[in-house]
Sequence to fold (223 residues):
Amino acid sequence: MTLVELEAFCGAHDWAQETRRGRRASFVSFYGWGVLARHVDENPAAQLPRVSASAPNPQPVPVRVYSAAVLEATPRVRLMARMAKELGMRRTEVATSHSRWIVEDLVGWSMRVVGKGGKVREVPLPADFAAELLELGPGYFFPSRHQSGHLTPAYVGKLVAAVLPGVWTMHKLRHTAASEWHDVCGDLAVVQDLLGHASPATTRSYLKPKQSKLRATVEAAAA
Fold:
């Protein structure tokens, strides 16, 4: 493809800013490989306009909204929502979660979550949550109707979104997990590892500090 064709292709899509930024990076990387492998003479994507990172806009789901949602949800959907909110799992990770991900060590139980690119991270499990997952038995936690695989990530996201009102989505439950974890530990690196982010900048975009903490910090410094 030429630069003009790439620009036309990108311009024809109504992508979010971060998606557009990621697509540009993918094109640059792909054609960069093509040049090194001598499949093409030049990298047309290198001249695509740069896309700046979007400003952080974390939107953790309010406690009252989440509490009402899990009361309304079926047991299966409630478990999906809990995995997003309490374990910070993406909808794809929830959809593909499997009994073999649950492991026990000398301290307790953990979930070895298989995330983007097959990257594995270990998320500690509260004892009651581990017991609930173990009761589901061997196999996928959310099998498809024909028991031949698991539910699709899109369908899992749709099920959870259906019990959340208005603008709230399953992904925003990850924002909730990030914000609550950071409130507890105050350590960005810990939250980054729990969420499976490659960059701390991405993790920071998930965090929304409580206004009470902002005020307490300013007042304590001024005292």
Observations:
- The longest helix spans residues 17-36.
- The radius of gyration is 21 Å.
- The first strand starts at residue 102 and ends at 104.
- The chain has a mean pLDDT of 92.
